[in-house]
Amino acid sequence: MAGKPEKPRRGDAATHIYEKLRSGILMMRIAPGSAIDEAAIVREFDVSRTPVREAIVRLAADGLEVLLPNKGSKVAPLDLSRVRGYLEAMDVIQPAVMALAARRWVPADLDAIRAACTAFDNATASGDNEAQVLRNRDFHIAIASACGNDLLIASYRRLLDEGLRISPLSLSTRFAPNAQHGEAFNSEISRQHWAMVEAIEKHDAETAADLADQHTEVTRGWFSDFLADGYRRPGRLTGVIDRASGGQQRA
To answer: What is the band of 39 on the pLDDT scale with cuts at 50, 70, 90?
Structure first.
């Protein structure tokens, strides 16, 4: 990680380090499978080893790091075969969340959903890929919060967190086959987001569920295109897949 970060306040160090490392892992600035150098993190943040260990344990609980017996820890590898399972789970859970949100929302829910949708568009317009990924999650969490089922919300939230490691491959223009392709994909995502907002506002559960299906299908199609383009241009695919599978060291 480049640059000297601001030293966190006492008591906040573990959370500060956790958030910085989590962001780096999710956006693949820290490569999957790479070793975590605790001594380097201690020097970088000018803290003791205790908050660093606390942050690493939290990341391990999130499934983002793997604790190694007597060997420290490493960033959890990103198994691209899990994309299929992730999308299948989305096929099941996301339409249910959308339909229930359409039936049960209250005005405060709709305000939050609209605000999150706008925030995603703003992040896209600014070209901030990291913010874009996080605001996309916020949008879907806002919808989940309107569905009125705590167990479903928890399952959906966990699934969205799983998707955070996959989202940079789709939402980020860094990995698009070309600029036009990336812009078209993001434009379609935004269009679908606002269509969801409209269906939810109208209490149209059936349309909301259908849009959820379409939303997942767009991501599935993009990922297929991404892999196909990579096989046409092996150097591009190798670089991205190596990063995603842990074939490279920390960036």
So the answer is: very high
User: What gap in Å lies between CA 76 and CA 168, rounded to an integer?
Assistant: 16
3-state per-residue secondary structure call for 65-111 = EEEECCCEEEECCCCCCHHHHHHHHHHHHHHHHHHHHHHHCCHHHHH
Give the mean model confidence (pLDDT) for residues 8-29.
83
Give the count of alpha carbons within 13 A of 224, CB side only. Answer: 8
Helix or strand or coil: residue 35?
strand
Reported as a single tens digit per residue, the pLDDT across 120-170 is 999 999 988 888 888 999 999 999 999 999 999 999 998 998 888 777 666
233 Cβ neighbours under 8 A, 6+ residues apart: none
Contact 73, 39 (CB under 8 A): no
Output the pTM of the full model: 0.76
**Neighbour-count burial of 100, counting CB atoms closer than 10 A to its CB (0-12 exposed, 13-18 middle, 19+ buried):** buried
Q: Which long-range contacts (CB under 8 A, 24 or more apart) does 158-162 make?
A: 159/86, 159/89, 159/90, 159/93, 161/62, 161/137, 162/63, 162/82, 162/86
DSSP secondary structure letters along 7-28? PPPTTTHHHHHHHHHHHHHHTT
- Which of 12, 24, 115 minimizes the C-alpha distance to 65? 24
The phi, psi pair for 75, rounded to 5°, reads -65, 135
Q: In whole angstroms, what is the distance from residue 161 CA to residue 196 CA?
A: 21
Q: Which residue has the tokens 């269906």?
A: 199
Which residues neighbour 3 within 8 Å (Cβ) at sequence distance 6 or greater?
A: none
